[in-house]
Amino acid sequence: MLWKETEDKCLSQEWKWLQTVAIFMPISNVFMPFFGGILGFWILFRYSWRAIATPVSRAYFWLSLWMIFTTVIAFNPAIAAGGLANFLPYFLLAASTSYIVRTPAQFIHFLWLLVLSSILVSSFGLLQAIIDRPDWIFPKMIFDSYPIPMGFSSDRRIQSFFGHFNETAIYLLTLIPIAFHFSVGKVKAISKSQRWIAIVAIALGTAVLILTGSRNAWGLAMLGGVFMSLYYRQWKLIGGFGLILLVIAWAVFGQKFGLGGEALRSLLPEGFVNRLASTVDPKLGDYASTADRLNVWQFALSLIAQHPIQGWGLRNFSAIAQSVGYDLHGLPHEHNLFLAIAVGSGIPALIGFFGIIIWTIWHSLKSAIAKETEGLMIVTAIGITLFFLSGWLDLVMYEPRISMLLWYLLGSLYGLVNQHHHKSPILDD
Known about the structure:
The protein is an all-alpha fold and about 425 residues long. About 65% of the residues lie in helices and about 0% in strands. The protein has one domain (about 20-420). It has a two-stranded antiparallel ribbon. Helix 1 packs parallel to helix 6 and helix 14 crosses helix 16 (about 335-365). The protein is globular.
């Protein structure tokens, strides 16, 4: 039992609410953020600010004030005000999660529910691939989300419940290390059936990750394998991953740089090879995405150089480009999380944002209670790290469900550590 029988069953309702949102979170980018937000405000108003006023929550509060200030003086304050919705509500979500998740048992169960929910994403993605009728549009009204085609896109990619293939890929990528840790039997607190469900989750998730065609996620998945191998101290696996990466790189890029590799190239799927090769080959169609990113990064850096402290206002990037006649080639944002924050709220916001997150992870991993999570704290940190590394090439935090996943992970990490230092008599240890 996670909770002792008490007269008021403190927080038991909130814990059930949080579990429900965790299970069904992927299916709607409107309803589930709404229910998650209601839970956050419920915690805030029922238990007051003092209940969630941890050092991390206070840091997010001051960061929020800075972001509000940069919104007031933004290039377009109205657009910047909308950009605040990509950050401020999730700071509250993390704070409320850290207040609810208090024991290792809760932490383990919560992560397992998130892994379970990923099966919804991957199963629907595989269903799209099997049906492969992109002219069939899944009824938008059911999930009040994006129009969902029941098949591959024109460039043979799958998006599942999300509005873009890369969003699906990063959602799954963040959870795959956690699912893997459950599936290999490292967590003794779960049952055999739960372990088998985790095995199904990682198998389906990996398949759909490949089908998304996200080069960013593919590379980070390999890097995640190296991180996991380092944690498990499987040196042979690290060597194996390194060898696989070298072979793939030789096969894909060797011919372009005069290093051969044609024979190996013929052994790999053509679509896979072309997708990777187009990253650096201007002769291939998909190279446009690389060129477009380089173009927007150049403009973003120029904006940061002009307003390094206060920025230009969140989500103002495309409006500024339009006002000065700069062609973004159709890209709606910076395609880089770090540049987006610096352009929007200045370098101080970028330092504050990542400073808080790095401190949260470091503080969690060095805590004595980390050992009671059977390695899940470290694996969760790996998932979070992969998420932020994806931010070098893309910007998926504007999708509410992906932001919810990130802040749930960060909130549960810190909540466990914080409550360990302030134990409540209501909770089982």
